[in-house]
Amino acid sequence: MTGAGPAAAAGHVDDGARVPYRRWRRWVASLRRRALVVRAAQDGGDPHDRVYLGYGVVLLALVYGPILWSALAQATAAVPLPEAAFARAVTLVAGAALALGVACLAALAAARAGGPVWISPAEATFALSGQFRPRDVLRRRALLLALGAAAGAAFVATAGAAGLVGGPAAVGAVPLLAAGAGAALLGQVPLAVGVAAQTPSRRRAATGVAGALLALGAVAAAVGATVAGGPVAAAGSWPGLAAGTNAGALLVVAVAVAVGATAAWAAWLVVRVLPDELDVDRAAAGQARTVTAGRGLVGGDSAAVADVLGPRAVAGRGARFVAPLLRRAPLVARDLLGLRRRPATVGGSLLAGVAGALAVRWGVGGDGVAIATVAGAVVLYAAVRPWADGLHAFAAQPQPGALLPGTTGHAVAGHAVVPTVLALLVAAAGGAGAGAAGLVAVLAVVLVALAARVWVAGATAAPPGLFTPMMTPNGDMSMLVLGAWYLRGWLVVAAAAWVLGRVGPGPATSVLLLGLAAGLAAAGVRRFARA
Amino acid sequence: MRAATRTHGTVQVLAPTTLSLGPGEAAALVGPNGSGKSTLLRLVAGKDEPTSGEVHVLGMSARRARLRRREDVAVLLGGLAAYPDLTVAEHLRLVASAWAGRHPGPDVETALAAAELDRVRDQLPGELSSGEGQMFALATTLYRPARLVLLDEPEQRLDARWRAVARRLVAGALDSGRALLVATHDPDLRADLARRGREVELAAPGPR
Hints:
By secondary structure, chain A is mainly alpha-helical. Chain A is about 70% helix and about 0% strand.
């Protein structure tokens, strides 16, 4: 340390003595380039491998991007819109707020996994341990993230807008551009929430923003459902947007200004303010965990993702076993205690479960659409995960159930009691008043989601056979099959819900789904026993 | 276990081994790294099958015993079957309750004191130090009732004081009439077990 000024007293390097980051970075980049060329020469590889990789990624995006865009547009086209202009506007606000809220939740999860601003452990040591200003080091990636968030949001929003007005042919370029530009601006909000969650002082505020957006979406959706009342407009009959006119021009301008100001503020936070406040070590640790989990997944270990979000906070340390229950049903008492130690997660999952059950109920109703059934079932499958925490902990043990008496089947049954009770409660809450057929349909989907959890928990390592190369005219599909194996629970639940949505509720569908649930649960127990 | 071997590919990881263990007897499996101690324990636990020879546990094949006689065999191989959201004391309470009527004791507090785990009784498994975690695993494995106990290097990551505690716990398990098969590198534990039963020296692995 030199000098005795305030900066020196505070332990800072004098700004005049700093090596400019860009010059240092250029020097490191040239070193790495040279090392890459030398390594490639030694290994007989091609030093331009990264260029080819970039070329491949761009090519894939150009091939599959339009397909994905059309699929999104088609999915949105199935969403019915209310006829009245006010109800339509409220529905639009609800959809935007919910989409932003969900994106914010994803950004909060990313913050626990080392993103959205990624920092490698080496960077944390060699570039971010005090010698350079973090905002100088991270400026380029913050700008890249802002551009990426804008592009991603515009991609989704234009597809959604095209679907809502009846397809790309039915919508003019101006509305599409307006939707894209608006989404590109609003896309900065989840990004700012994610980066704020990477700073110790703004983590709580970031969570608050996500919660506020979800609450706004829920309230707007409820208001929309109340005012819609009337007949449902067919997709494509949205004259306001199609014609590019709006009676409340002033309101539109005000909204546009508000959106622009919010986006500018969010982008300024991401690029200029938040990088200096980042918890660099936490971000680097998160990235290291994510890389490890990725390697585990490539190696066939689905349990690898369990640690991606870092150590779980356990609340409710004061909670104790319910003594009478512990004597009669120890595993039920254990699972109940586990739930009481994660009240926020369990409460959120119950709300999500009821929302999923309501979506399934609406989907199988007279005016519902199959996609609502599928979306509801997928939400239910996600919601079941915290309820089945005891079962997953049991599955992760080196010798599942080694401490407890009884067979593996008994242990699995013991761990299934609490999630089953919660599933029945959620099914009752979501299906109440839907009539016998609707209630049974909701119940069947909930049970399929629960049984799929048992089935998936029974095996965390991919069967070696999945790694056998599977040559097709489109190349080796073995990685695709491996991906499907990881997503098998989601796929089975979505497929069952799709069948229910297409065929409709009834005795045959219910028997089919309940049979599927029984089969999945039995297969899961057999796998546990073999472990 | 009669002339049991285990081979992975072209590498024999367990040379032909014959061993029998009666009720209340102890055996210390000793030998250098790679001599097949853990492999032998896995064969007895029924988690692997011998390439040749046979392994019988409690009157049936080890593979079958793993499914049919789970209640009679306690195993500590590669970590404890713990729940991440239960504290140390709650794990012992869960074990005591689940085996109610068949659990010979002692009570949870006494067991914690015997393992010198009182200080961390309200900590979660993920909050324990490496040594505390190992002692917790050993204490919990020995706390559940069993006729046969299989332990793979119970002394690992323990300091001298806790190694002595581990030896006391193992001796207590023998006193209660259990059969113990223990792979170990700890000379004191090895001597203790040899005094109460026998020592099985496994052959060093061949050139690699």
